[in-house]
Amino acid sequence: MKVSFFGVRGSIAVPGDDTRRYGGNTSCVQVQVEGAPPLVVDCGSGARTLGRELVLGQHHHVDMLFTHLHLDHVSGLPFFGPIYSPNCRLSISVPAITKDEAEAKLGRYLNGVYHPVRLRDLAATVHVEHVRIGRDFDRGAFHIEPVRLNHPGGCFGYRVEHGDRSVVYLADTAPLSRLDEGLSAGSPPTALETTVLHALREADLVVMDTMFSFDEYVEKMTWGHGYPEYAVRLCEAAGARRLALYHHSPDATDQALDELGERWAQYQGLDVFVAREGGSVDLEG
Ligand SMILES: [Zn+2]
Ligand SMILES: [Zn+2]
Most C-beta atoms within 10 A of its C-beta, which of 65, 145, 216, 283? Predict the structure, then answer.
């Protein structure tokens, strides 16, 4: 199983000299296994590059998962090449109570106002599916477990499994406990932490929102984003193997992200690295 980063930024795309090495595009990750349709998780501005690769690779089936529909996770959809390919079948999974609600949510963005092409007029064959907490499902070669996160308006994380390999994608989320309780306080996990720990159990890779430093989190607790020390604590409590710090602040320069990576490279308990656009992790064997 291979996990590739096409956009690692939160909030807004930030091209420029200060973000050249880690990349300025917003959230988009691809999960692949040999001989199966690729799974695209979130469709931020990084999805444009991924879409071009998929069209060139003549993929006829693509599965896409949305965590939520904040703009930094959906802005790449109108520029994701496979949606304009008549030979392509696309299944798009959206957190919603019903299939109609899932379609309506996506259709609000592709409706002729914010983009000239409407969802119902796309050249590809598009199936929109709804995803609910407590209902695991299969997409192509992958078994997927949704889990509820802590983010304004709601957001789902996903555990994606193939055989005995697993990646857990947790963007966007604030810590799942207040500072005076649960893992934040070094105490037994809260109820919400317990469900997320179950999703994280012995994961080979965790990709997690660490947009803030601890001090920024304390200032902006209601914004729904986390910080590295909490992500590490959560991964260690779940026995996860690797952690990708992800959904970087638009203000985080390459130099700041280098320093973050150097700091965590010294850490003994867990393999922690800073996600970089264009980077990938191979989870085979
Ligand atoms: Zn976001
Ligand atoms: Zn968000």
Answer: 65
How many whole angstroms from 23 Cα to the centroid of ligand 1?
15
Beta strands in the chain (DSSP E): 2-7, 28-32, 39-41, 61-65, 89-95, 125-131, 137-139, 142-148, 156-162, 165-170, 205-209, 242-246, 271-274, 280-282
For residue 130, how far is its CA from the centre of ligand 1 (angstroms)? 20
Q: Does pTM top 0.90 for this prediction?
A: yes
Tokens for 37? 């349709």
Report how far Cα 258 is from the mean position of its chain's Cα atoms.
21
Whole-angstrom distance, CA of residue 146 vs CA of residue 159 = 7
* Tens-place pLDDT, residues 54-64: 999 888 999 99
CB neighbour list of residue 62: distance below 8 Å, 6 or more residues apart:
37, 38, 40, 54, 82, 88, 89, 90, 91
Q: Domain 2-282 sits in which CATH superfamily?
A: Ribonuclease Z/Hydroxyacylglutathione hydrolase-like (3.60.15.10)
- Amino acid in position 12: I
Q: Which residues pair with 52 in a beta bridge?
A: none
Question: Cα 66 to the chain's mean position, in Å?
Answer: 8
CA of 73 to the centre of ligand 1 (A): 6
| CA 135 – ligand 2 centroid, Å | 22
- Give distance in angstroms: CA of 172 to centre of ligand 2: 5
Which is nearest to 126 in space by CA: 156, 94, 97?
Answer: 94
> Which tens digits make up the pLDDT trace of 40-93?
999 999 999 999 999 998 889 999 999 999 999 999 999 999 999 999 999 999
